[in-house]
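Suppose a colleague, Dr. K., hands you the sequence of a protein chain of 238 amino acids and asks what its three-dimensional shape might be. Before reaching for any lab equipment, you can write down a predicted structure in token form. Begin with the sequence itself:
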Amino acid sequence: MSEDNIFAEVDEDLRREQLLQQWDKYGVYLIIAAVLIVASVGGYKGYVWWQNKVSIESGQAYYKAEDLLISKKTDEAMAALSKIAKDAPSGYQTLASLEMAAIEMRKGNKKQAVALFDKISVNGADAILRDFAKIQAATLLVDEADAKEISRRVEGLNIDTNPWRYSARELLGLAAFRSGKLAESEKLFGQLVSDPSTPPEINKRAEVILSLIVKSETPATAKDESAPKEAAKQQATQ
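The predicted structure, expressed as tokens, is then:
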């Protein structure tokens, strides 16, 4: 046997011995790690399967509830939606809660509808639906709540990047109008009318309110202008 072969065999034996030593020292941990990897992969796949199953079941339950509504079985639909709002994934929870709030609105149960919208505004599945719930609750309350309350409810929505900004400005303008803050109301509705991207229906309502503001201001202006004349007339007769 050549010298090179001898050194090669010795080197191979040393590597084998080192490997065995490492196995004796760390082998059990490698086994545990392998088991954990397999378990985690299996657990993740199981979780994904379970999520898909729950989502499909929730979707079926939601559409059954919608069918109950179409069939005018409101009480049964409310019971089904209530269960979805409690047990389903967050997306279906939000949809069910929105449907329940709409039912309460149609029944004239303003307090219950506002409570549902308030809950969605905190726990809704995404920001757009949370903001939508804020708008809906504020809309229900705009005829009775003061301007500060409406402002609090739509806080953060009256910005150019928010998709609900037009509704928020309309509500703020209405609240200001009801509170007698005509200059503030005129500014908000003027902003809506001058914005070409304002939705048509909101634009029409804004124009109506602006015309009311003008009419409400006109008598006061006329009265102010006639006051000096009346004073002068009275002074002349004295």
